[in-house]
Amino acid sequence: MDASSGPQIALTDKERFPLLDDLSFLNELRQDVFAPKFNFKSGDRLNTGQLSKVKAYQKKYYDKKVFWKEGQTPIWLTDYLKWCLKTVPFYQNKGNDFDSFPTTSREDIRKSPYLFVSNEANLDELLVYHTSGSTGPKLDVLFDAVSQAAWLPQIESVLKEFNIAITESKNTTAIALICAQEKTLTYASLSAYLQGAGVLKINLNPSDWNHPEDVTKYLEKYNPQILTGDPIAFMALLDLQPQLKPKALISSAMRLTKGTQNKLENYFKCPVIDLYSLTECRNIAYATKNGHQVIRPDLYLEIFDEHNDVPLPYGERGELVVTGGNNPFLPLVRYRTGDFCSLKIENGIPFLVDLEARNPVVFFTKSEVKINNIDISNGLSHLPLAGFKMHQRKDKLIQFTGYSNKVTPKKIVDLLQLIFKNDIEIHADIQKIGQNNTVEKSQYTSELTGNS
Q1: 199 occurs within a structural domain
Q2: Among the listed residues 40, 45, 34, the one whose alpha carbon sits nearest the alpha carbon of residue 4
Q3: pLDDT at 293 over 50
């Protein structure tokens, strides 16, 4: 999110935190001698009614999770579709049968975000998030304070699986979002849902701090309970060797390899959770040995053919499609995520199997043997790569760029030669990770399959 994307009309802290009378901890976080040069001010904006809705959301969907059975749909789906057809302009005149309802794309939302706003949404509560556009054109996502704050009970439900709870107190830092970018919004905030606990977004880039060593001193002083971020940011943080004791690290936005996960867990002595989420609907699932375990009973997940509006039989691999959510400014009906997996249900819980958060790409050896990018991902998974890009030219040469402070180009070449049966030419480059990276998500492209 660019700093230029900030609001043009500034709010007061009273407007940002209507339920919190004591903002002394917020001021301490902002004004600490080691604090970064914060460039933004943010607050949850929850009033009494909205906070009650967040707590009701938590109780309804997370006290006891009820999903759906194979061959069935959730009990809430019929009423949800009726509500969307009645109040959301985009879904009108598209029929009323869910089984034949067409899918929705990111481009639909990008072109006409206003058509997805329910007529029952309170426009006074409108908030706008600008995506980075790392997987396509930039996208404005509309939401309100309730759907924004709902990410916290979603996170809590994941942490609960690891027997971890966030301590709710006005004198503790609950969560810190760690970034390692050239430029991003940074702020100190509080959460009314967490009884006034602190929430930070910081950038490790030295230019964001008065002194290079301040970033370590600041984090160590406030010792956030939960660190969130992407693998690149976490590996950049690891280079600083901070003396922190987080309860968990939650990684998202990029593929987390097993090698990187092990490295982080060995240092921070806590679980490193690989979370799958979308800006359009927030958190969806987290990685387990059986696949990504779904956490949202308020989302119905289907697998569709990549090119046709046809749902695939249970167990087949295709594009993940999402229906549901709690955002009146962006209710989703059969939204194509652009991510690929198969779906299985075990003991009443859905799992996304072999999830690849990108379009599937087929590569070729010199002798035309097909290599699936899933096999490449699995082969690379044990390496401490924070991210990578892999491209195949028309002459079949593989160009690989990885981000790591440990892996060598030779290691990459040797491993890929094994996957490609020693029948490929590979150029590999490894770039060091710093505190000011300009790195997009890991991606595969090919000039041979039209995915360039």
Answers
A1: no
A2: 40
A3: yes
Q: Assign residue 432 the CATH number of its domain.
A: 3.30.300
Q: What is the pLDDT of residue 135?
A: 43
Residue 403 lies in a domain: yes
Distance CA(177)–CA(181), nearest Å, equals 12
Do 171 and 222 contact (CB within 8 A), yes or no? no
SS3 state of residue 371: strand
Complete DSSP assignment for 151-178: HHHHHHHHHHTTT------TTSEEEEEE
Q: Where in the sequence is the domain holding 390, given as residue range(s)?
A: 362-446
The predicted structure's pLDDT at residue 61: 82
Closest CA to 218 of 28, 16, 78, 74: 28
C-alpha 215/C-alpha 242 separation (Å) is: 9
**pLDDT tier, 2 (very low <50, low <70, confident <90, very high otherwise):** very low
Q: DSSP H helical segments within 247-345, as ranges?
A: 258-268
Q: Is residue 407 part of a domain?
A: yes
Is it the case that residue 7 has pLDDT exceeding 60?
A: no
Run of H or E including 337? strand 332-346
**How many domains, the chain?**
1
| pLDDT of amino acid 360 | 59
pTM of the entire predicted model: 0.82
- 236 Cα distance to chain centroid: 19
Label residues 52-79 b or e (16+ Cβ within 10 Å = b).
Answer: ebbeebbeebbeeeebbeeeeebebbee
What pLDDT sits at residue 3? 41
H or E stretch at 15: helix 13-16
371 in a structural domain? yes
Cα 416 from chain centroid? 28
The residues near 266 (Cβ < 8 Å, ≥ 6 apart) are none
Are 227 and 252 in contact, with CB atoms under 8 Å apart? no
H-type alpha helices, 19-144: 24-31, 48-62, 77-87, 106-111
Taking only the tens place, the pLDDT of each residue in 389-420 is: 999 999 999 999 998 999 999 999 999 999 99
E-strand stretches of 245-331:
248-251, 272-278, 282-288, 291-294, 299-304, 318-324
DSSP for 107-141 reads HHHHH-GGGGS-TTS-GGG-EEEE---TTSS--EE
Tell me the β-bridge partners of 336: 321
Q: State how far the Cα of 293 lies from the Cα of 274, in Å rounded to an integer.
A: 11
